[in-house]
Structures are given as structure tokens and as C-alpha cells.
Amino acid sequence: MATVPKFRIDVDIHNLLMQSAPGPVKVPEPKGEKLPDPVFPQYPEKLSDPGPSTVLKKRDWTIPQVYRKMRGWLFPYIRSRVLPGEFHPITAYLFVEYKCNLDCWYCWAFNNKIPGMTEDVARRSIDWLHDHGCRVLALMGGEPLLRPQFAHKVVYYAAKKGFWIYIGTNGRLLRPDVADRLGDAGVAVFNFAVDAWDEKPSLPKAVVPVRKHIEHLMKKQYVYGYMTFFNLNICRNNTQDVRQITEYARENRIATDYHINETPMLEQDEHFKHLSDNPTYIRPEDWPEIDSLVDWIIEKNKAGYQMVNSVQRLQEIKAFIRMASGADLKRLGWNGDGTGTNGDVAHQLAGTPGIVEENGELHFAEWNCRAGQNNVIIRTDGTVAPCFPMYASTFDWGNIDHHHFNSKQLAGMKKTCQQHCFSTLNHNLAYCYNDARVIKFVWTNLVTNRMKGGALSFKD
């Protein structure tokens, strides 16, 4: 198999982000703060309620549940539009762990030498985000449920402060008793990362090993008021699995969120041991199969399957896999006018909304990335960065005591990194950071659908 590049971003910006700091980024001084012990169960009647025996076709969201969503997403958005300054986080990713209980061969968020987050850093991070108006908190890893009691404390404290809480997990440790504690504490979304139907050597995140956990959540989501998502990473060796999981999700009214397997944007350290000869990375000979899968997903999206991704975003996958492989349009058969040996495909790619052709090369157009402005990550040690792809960067953006986000530095960085980034989360935030789209989305869900639907993508 061909060796893939060690990083995907341009060399100059890579060197700036990885070599410009004079030393390690300063971590916040410990203050010895603790998280309160959760009360459990807060709702004994919900703990004893098994939930419906069959999948409900529609969700009837209660007024408190609707308010929780508005408090998490809408109110911070309005705050960010009317208050002065550039830093108004709407979404925050709290990396409570960098360790993981699985080893997915494409993943660089795996280092069992890095200590997990302390209660002191967790509490101060939540307070810091709260003071800056943020109300959406995602617990991330690694695997954020490696310490379930710690995760319970984090969720309990954040929910009491009004956060809409999201947990991304491979599901192996999400036993029914853990799920009930987190649901009782106030989780809004469980996002199962599943890449295969059954476990594969390179793709251990699978449905079969966690199916009982999923089935428990599918029943109890109606009791506790959270949602269940599937997060699928499209690789060269799981295209049939993606189809099977999508249909399973459809049958059980589970929303899906699709990513395309990417090599690291920044060079990773020695623990990322699967960079070469990797069966998950997409190669040129795989493009027709990936194109076919993407067309199939788009067809299902248009048919009403619950998906986070928009049709345009799915269409961009075809161009991105060629961009990530460094394929210039001339090699794809592009002569600038749609003619050539493979002119139809090249013309389609060059004409994809959001994709720009310059000097025979494809890259993403500027897409209003909000990283470091309305999005922030907090590492396990309390240092901060604008987005997940920058976790490994040594550039000094500060910590939860003193952040150093600078609009000029971020703007300069984004001129380059936006051309290479396919982050679904950040693209969705950027797309939604638009008054007209927000008004339309709120009107559609509150008035037209009366908050009885599931998860759908933003559409113009």
C-alpha cells in the first residue's frame, strides 16, 4: 500500500503551528477545586420506567426539553451576535480523556500516556465556558467513559449550570447502569461512533459489540429526553458496513452523521503507529466505490432519512478525497472546459458548490470557520485550542485562566487550513452561523414541525 503524507496542511502553516512556541504551553495552576457528588437518582420514576416496547415514529418534545435546546444553542448564538468582541463560544469540546480502550487504525486521538482531566480542571473549564456564554459541552476523548464516575460528575455539574451536553463514545463502556446515571444527570445526546457492523482488526468500533447498549438507549431516550446518534467514518474498507448501519439506523429512528476518513492535518507523535500501510485510508483506486456510496447516502438523505449532513456537504466528499490525495485536475482529465479523458467527472468536481479550482488544483473555498471564536477545545491539561485538528499544535492559545485567541492570527491561519479541513462539526457551525438560516430553522422546528421530528440537516 502507498504511504500517505505525515500531515495534510501546507508546510509553512504547519511549521508555524508546530514549531513557533518557545516552550510548552503554560497549563493553569491547580487550585484544588472539586466537582460535587451527583445525586442519583434525581428522578426515581424515570429510572424505573423501561420506556416504550417499540420504536416511536415521532418524538414529542416537552416544553422543558425544547427550552433546554434553545438555552444551549439559540441563546448563546444571539449573545454572540449582539455583544462586542470576537470570543463568544457556542460549542466547546472538553477532552476529559486522551486514552482509549480501542485502537482504531486511523485515529490519532489515542495516547495512553496522557493523564486524564482532573476534577479541578473540569470544574474550572465549565465555569470558564459558562462565564463566556457557552452552553453546549461535548465530552470527548479518547474514550470519555473510561472513568464513568468522573463523567457522571462532569455531566451533573454542567447540567446544573444549564449546559446542553453531548457525549461521543464508542459505546463499549456505556452499560445500562452508566447510561441511566448520565441520562438522569442531564445528557442531551449520546453519539455512538460506529464504523463497522461487526468488529474488524482495523475498525473495532462496531454495532454488534454494543448492540445491547444501543437498544437500552433507544428505549430510555424517550424517558430521559436525550437523542441517540450514529457517527460513521467512511473508510476504504467499510463501504458496505456504512450502508448496513444506515439502514439499521433508519429502522430504529436513529440519526446518522457521516465523516470521511482523513489523514492527520498536523504531524502526530510516535504513538500514532498506523500511518503507513493503513487499510482504512482511501486511495485513488477506491474513488469509484466511495463515489457510489456517497450517491447512495445522498439518495437516502433526499428520501427523508435522519442525517446531520446536508446534500451539498455530502457531495463535497467526492472532491475532498481527491484533494486529500493531492490529485490535480489535469490528472483527472480536466482541460478547463469539461473535456478530456474523464472530463465529466472532473467537471462535476470542479463545479461542486464550496469547491474552488485554481491553477488546475481543487481546494475548499473560504467557509467562515468559527474556530477560536464560537468554537473551542479544552485539552486534558486545561490548555485551549480553536478546534480538534489543532489538538497536537504547540502554538500558544493559552489556557482556561488566560486564553490568547487573536482574531488576526486566527484569520491568517484559516486562509490556509480552511482549504484542507473537512471537519463536519466546524462546517456545520459555520453554516449555521447565519441569521437567516437560524430564523428559518427555528421557525420550521417550532412552528411547522412543532418539535415533533428528529435530527435533520440545515438546508437553504
Description:
The chain has 460 residues and is α/β, with parallel strands linked by helices. 37% of the residues lie in helices and 11% in strands. The chain has helices spanning 11-19, 44-47, 63-82, 119-131, 148-160, 176-185, 211-224, 239-251, 287-302, 311-324, 343-350, 407-417, 424-432, 435-448, and strands spanning 91-95, 136-140, 164-169, 187-193, 227-234, 255-260, 355-358, 361-364, 375-378, 384-385. The strands form two sheets. It has an eight-stranded mixed β-sheet with strand order 6-5-4-3-2-1-9-10, with helices on both faces. Helix 5 (148-160) links the parallel strand 2 (136-140) and strand 3 (164-169). The longest helix is centred in the first third of the chain and has 20 residues, at 63-82. The radius of gyration is 22 Å and the shape is globular.
Q: Topology of this structure?
A:
Layout: H1 11-19, H2 44-47, H3 63-82, E1 91-95, H4 119-131, E2 136-140, H5 148-160, E3 164-169, H6 176-185, E4 187-193, H7 211-224, E5 227-234, H8 239-251, E6 255-260, H9 287-302, H10 311-324, H11 343-350, E7 355-358, E8 361-364, E9 375-378, E10 384-385, H12 407-417, H13 424-432, H14 435-448
Parallel strand pairs: 1-2, 1-9, 2-3, 3-4, 4-5, 5-6
Antiparallel strand pairs: 7-8, 9-10
Helix pairs in contact: 4-5, 5-6, 6-7, 8-9, 9-10
Summarize the structure.
Helices cover 37% and strands 11% of the residues. With 460 residues, the protein is of the alpha/beta class.
Cα distance spanning the termini: 41 Å
The average pLDDT is 87
Give the CATH H-level superfamily. Answer: Aldolase class I
Proportion of residues in helical segments: 25-40%
CATH second-level architecture: Alpha-Beta Barrel
Q: Briefly note the CATH topology name.
A: TIM Barrel
Mind summarizing the main beta sheet?
A: 8 strands, mixed
What best-fitting shape do the alpha-carbon axes yield?
Answer: globular
- List low-pLDDT spans: 334-343
Hey, roughly how much beta strand do the residues contain?
5-15%
| SSE string, helices as H and strands as E | HHHEHEHEHEHEHEHHHEEEEHHH
Count of distinct strands: 10
Quickly count the helices.
Answer: 14
Count of domains: 1
